[in-house]
Structure formats: structure tokens, C-alpha cells
Design brief:
By secondary structure, the protein is an alpha/beta fold. The chain is built from 8 helices and 14 strands.
Length: about 290
């Protein structure tokens, strides 16, 4: 028996997890296993079962969310052996090399790659039309391109986004989405359009660092997020404000601060081009 597998890619903050949540809420009885590098918002507060190469959390509708503890190939095989899913969805990190992942999946027995799905943040393409290496490869590798956040751009801007992604990938299926509302059937094309190739585009210096947050209030946090250096593109993390936990999401100038039931280490992760050079400046601003 061969298990179908979808690779879900997309740049930092593009909306992969939002789309994934929608798919899981509307899976119509399928046993879906989601594999992530670590549990994100998809995970719920249930008992975590730690196995040799994965940790498992049960989700609604008979689905599971698996966090990778060891080698990718071994993790996939363990999911199949323990759970026997109808479908596996691998959500990649925002800076993952999609072409390399396609090769990795092709080497795993018992699975069949049925679709590479790339979520494209339309607002990002509008603001930064000179796309970097990672996002270009993600678009080029896709069988299905989900153009997300279309409600946040004009019709003319959406047309320009479509033109831009078509310059990179002329054969993928285009799907538009608001808040990740895409049916699972739209993510699996009848025929795969993907043709493997590697574009020789230089890496654009993406870096990351984390900063622990000891004491901050919501107003101070918001003020900090509104005055960030332009080279910081993405921030994510859980922060303890008073006695309450908040999930912080920052993407290209927009941010949300939402109450969360998660507990753990209070810190923020910063991602951007050559971003380590502003680490000291950021740390000083956060030591309020």
C-alpha cells in the first residue's frame, strides 16, 4: 500500500498553518497525518506521545500532528507504521528548499508525492517584487500555487502577482484563498505539473536569532513591533505578558498579538536578511 503525501511549502508567514487548519477542520473523515518540524498552532493541548523519531498529538476528526525528532525518512515511515494514514501532509519551514524536499520524498518507500503546494503571500509579492532565492524555488517547484491574502490586495495588484508567479512557474494550478479557505481536493491536481530543476539564484543572506522576553506589557510590545528595522521580515514567538501568554506574529510590517493557552519559554524569534547585525540593537530595545 502506498500512502499519498503532500508537501506544503511557502515563505515565512505566508499562511501555511492557516490553510492546514482549514483542511483539518474539513477533511470529511480522512485519517490525515501532519508532519511539522515542531508543533505550531495546529497542535492542541492533548497528551504528547514520544516515539523514536516523532512526537504525536491527536487532533480532531481522527487526525494526528507529528513533530519531527529524528531523520525525515524515518519519521515518515514511523507515521505510516503507527497510524496508517489516508494522507500525509508535510508542512515545511518557511525557508525550506522545496526542490531538495522533493528529492528526499522520492527516496522513501511506501509514499507517493501527489502534490507540491506552495502558499504565496500576495501582500509580500506586492511589497517586495524582487523575490529571493527560497521563495522563487518554492514557486518553481509547485504543482499548485495558492495565492493567499487576496482580500488584502487590489484586483490590479492580484493580476500583477499572478503575472509574477507565472513568470517563474507557467504550469502549476492557481488557486486564490482568503484566510486559507481551500478545499483539500484543490490541492491535489489530476496530473502533476512539476518539472524538477534548480535555478542558479544566489542565497540572499537569510538569518535568524532569538531573544528571551522577561518583562513587557502589551502596549510596549506593540510599540516595539511598529518601529522595527526594515531588514527584519518575520517574528514569531510566545510571550508572557503579566500572567497571560500571547502568540506574536509579525510579517513584513503587519503583526498580531493574540491570547494563547500555550506555556513555555517566553521569547521571540527574528528572521530577515543579514538580520544578526541588528541583534544587539533589538536586545537593548526589549530590555525595558
Amino acid at each position: 500500500m502506498v500512502t499519498p503525501l503532500i508537501l506544503l511549502t511557502g515563505y515565512l508567514g505566508s499562511g501555511k498553518t492557516t490553510l492546514l487548519q482549514h483542511v483539518l477542520r474539513n477533511n470529511h473523515g480522512r485519517r490525515i497525518a501532519v508532519l511539522m518540524n515542531e508543533f505550531g498552532e495546529v497542535g492542541i493541548d492533548t497528551k504528547t506521545i514520544r516515539k523514536e523519531t516523532i512526537a504525536i498529538k491527536e487532533l480532531l476528526e481522527g487526525c494526528v500532528c507529528c513533530s519531527l525528532l529524528g531523520e525525515f525518512k524515518a519519521g515518515i515511515q514511523e507515521i505510516i507504521r503507527l497510524y496508517k494514514p489516508d494522507l500525509i501532509i508535510v508542512e515545511t519551514t518557511g525557508i525550506a528548499e522545496a526542490d531538495n524536499l522533493v528529492l528526499d520524498v522520492s527516496k522513501i518507500s511506501g509514499v507517493k508525492l501527489v502534490s507540491v503546494v506552495t502558499v504565496v503571500d500576495c501582500t509580500l509579492v506586492v511589497r517586495f517584487p524582487s523575490l529571493g532565492h527560497n521563495i522563487t524555488v518554492q514557486i518553481a517547484a509547485a504543482d499548485v500555487l495558492v495565492l493567499g491574502k487576496v482580500d488584502l490586495v487590489s484586483r490590479q495588484e492580484l493580476t500583477e502577482v499572478e503575472k509574477k508567479v507565472r513568470e517563474i512557474n507557467s504550469t502549476a494550478t492557481l488557486v486564490t484563498a482568503v484566510r486559507g479557505k481551500v478545499d483539500l481536493s484543490q490541492l491535489i491536481p489530476s496530473k502533476r505539473a512539476f518539472k524538477f530543476f534548480i535555478q542558479s539564484i544566489p542565497d540572499h543572506g537569510m538569518e535568524s536569532f532569538s531573544v528571551p522576553i522577561k518583562s513587557i506589557n502589551r502596549a510596549q510590545l506593540a510599540a516595539f513591533l511598529e518601529q522595527l528595522p526594515a531588514i527584519i521580515y518575520r517574528i514569531k514567538g510566545y510571550v508572557l505578558v503579566g500572567k497571560s501568554w500571547y502568540l506574536v506574529n509579525y510579517v513584513g510590517g503587519r503583526y498580531t498579538i493574540e491570547r494563547s493557552g500555550k506555556q513555555g519559554e517566553s521569547k521571540l524569534v527574528f528572521i530577515g536578511k543579514d538580520v544578526k547585525k541588528v541583534k544587539e540593537k533589538v536586545e537593548k530595545k526589549l530590555k525595558l
